[in-house]
Backbone:
């Protein structure tokens, strides 16, 4: 479904990704794990078009994403829940969700998408008139995921959805990600919460200092030495 | 009611009427600042061109007032788009000071161009709207009309920003411009639409001001500084703050002018502005950050 081949990217003269290759197949849940500063967020940004790679290729269902203007990538079916949520804090929950369904193709289906999101997150329906910035971290994360789902994506990119949340809320978020995936949405998820994310993904990549150090089935990675090495830095 | 109270009431009412027009003026500038993050220093010069458009359409070509107003609003809206595409867009990545200097340059360019094209004589529509006498007070019909039209204009903009997808994107982009592409929003398109809206509001303001003031190439200097100060007082880019600040300013001008001269009203208003910059530099309705 999504294929990155030898992608290089960075900020100005600073290179953050070195020849990263990665594949996500339809219906899968794939994780990317790695320590702080590894380049995980940068990886998500190149896929959704927020930054342009300096080399390599990114193809989604035979569409060359590098030849697609950034604002049209969501039309292809990729929705990105950015790091630290990035809601519009002084707009209501409802307006935030509405922005998620901004695409002309999504507008006629807006009612159904609102119902879908409110069914998944009943709390958001109660809070729909509340300013997004006034909600708790967990509620904001649900709103951010709901906003991404408004465009009816085929592939959902999640950048550290559990960051900064209380342990019970983290469990809830992971359970919801599993439900979304069970509903037919392919998931690519970046996490620091390694043990937990490896329980909900099929496969995972280990990213460190901008390159992929290991890849494999989640169960294999769970107790492998590579993970410990990546995190302890030995 | 004593004679003095009548004057005070009249001044208060005139303050409200003036406040409506000032609120309209500041909304256009605020919208452009909030969304595009540039200050149109030449905003009032767009109004000046709109006033000339009204003058020529109505005085020279004898177009009916409503048609002239519609053409004026559209024309200044197009000027707003031109300003954005020709001057602002190429400088979006540049330092803010460069953008200020560029729109400042446009201000002098438009003043000089108007002087050459239209001459420095004061021109007016030559219509004298009646003055209403209510309970011993004199209320100008032109001001009432301007107030009503300004309110209608602001309500329409409000509904546009609240109800439509484009309007919602305009509000959203003012809060987080980087992630807009994730939602499929082409920021460049939103900037052009916002510029058209900002220009259109300047055009509407021009239609209303030309009923009360003569037009000349430097008339922008009458409205420009006060519009800018209102936006700053309300918190640049904060639409609600600008609205409140416009009425506060208008009342100070109107009531302050009652006790001394009208000119003193402006002195009080500017003094109030300077004092507020010490007390609440983020603006009247500053949001906690
Ligand atoms: N906007 C930016 N400008 C410059 N450098 C950045 C920027 N964002 C991230 N970086 C750098 O790129 C590297 C990778 O960052 P990031 O992708 O955010 O890592 P992660 O998400 O894995 O923590 C880090 O060294 C970081 O300092
Ligand atoms: Mg990150």
Residues:
């Amino acid at each position: 479904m999504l294929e990155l081949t030898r992608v290089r990217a960075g900020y100005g003269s600073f290179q953050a990704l070195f020849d990263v290759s990665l594949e996500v197949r339809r219906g899968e849940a794939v994780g990317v794990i790695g320590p702080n500063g590894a380049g995980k967020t940068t990886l998500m940004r190149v896929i959704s078009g927020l930054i342009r790679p300096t080399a390599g290729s990114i193809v989604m269902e035979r569409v060359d994403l590098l030849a697609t203007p950034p604002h049209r990538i969501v039309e292809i079916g990729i929705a990105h829940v950015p790091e630290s949520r990035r809601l519009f804090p002084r707009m209501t929950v409802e307006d935030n969700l509405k922005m998620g369904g901004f695409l002309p193709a999504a507008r006629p289906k807006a009612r159904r998408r609102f119902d879908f999101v409110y069914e998944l997150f009943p709390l958001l329906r109660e809070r729909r008139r509340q300013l997004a910035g006034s909600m708790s971290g967990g509620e904001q994360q649900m709103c951010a995921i709901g906003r991404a789902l408004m465009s009816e994506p085929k592939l959902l990119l999640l950048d550290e959805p559990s960051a900064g949340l209380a342990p019970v809320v983290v469990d809830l978020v992971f359970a919801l990600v599993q439900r979304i995936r069970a509903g037919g949405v392919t998931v690519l998820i970046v996490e620091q919460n390694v043990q937990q994310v490896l329980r909900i993904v099929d496969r995972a990549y280990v990213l460190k200092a901008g390159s992929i150090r290991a890849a494999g089935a989640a169960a294999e990675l769970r107790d492998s030495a590579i993970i410990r090495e990546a995190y302890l830095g030995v | 009611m004593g004679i003095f109270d009548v004057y005070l009431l009249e001044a208060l009412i005139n303050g409200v009427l003036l406040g409506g027009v000032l609120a309209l003026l500041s909304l256009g500038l605020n919208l452009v600042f909030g969304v595009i993050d540039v200050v149109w220093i030449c905003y009032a010069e767009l109004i000046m061109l709109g006033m000339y458009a009204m003058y020529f359409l109505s005085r020279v070509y004898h177009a009916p007032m409503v048609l002239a107003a519609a053409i004026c609003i559209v024309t200044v809206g197009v000027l707003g788009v031109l300003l954005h595409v020709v001057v602002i867009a190429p400088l979006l990545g540049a330092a803010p000071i460069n953008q200020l200097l560029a729109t400042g340059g446009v201000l002098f360019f438009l003043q000089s161009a108007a002087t050459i094209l239209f001459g420095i004589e004061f021109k007016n529509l030559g219509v004298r709207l009646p003055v209403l006498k209510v309970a011993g007070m004199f209320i100008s019909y032109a001001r009432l009309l301007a107030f009503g039209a300004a309110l209608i204009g602001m309500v329409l903009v409000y509904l546009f920003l609240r109800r439509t997808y484009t309007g919602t994107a305009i509000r959203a982009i003012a809060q987080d411009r980087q992630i807009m592409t994730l939602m499929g929003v082409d920021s460049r398109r939103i900037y052009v639409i916002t510029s058209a809206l900002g220009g259109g509001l300047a055009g509407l303001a021009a239609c209303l001001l030309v009923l009360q003031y003569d037009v000349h190439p430097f008339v922008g200097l009458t409205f420009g500084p006060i519009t800018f100060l209102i936006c700053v007082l309300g918190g640049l880019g904060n639409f609600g703050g600008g609205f409140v600040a416009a009425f506060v300013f208008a009342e100070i001008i109107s009531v302050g002018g009652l006790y001394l001269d009208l000119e003193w009203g402006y002195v009080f208003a500017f003094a109030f502005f300077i004092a507020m910059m010490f007390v609440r530099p983020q603006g009247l309705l500053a949001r906690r950050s």
The mean pLDDT of chain A is 92. The pocket of adenosine-5'-diphosphate (ligand 1) is lined by residues A 11, 14, 16, 34, 36-42 (CB under 6 Å).
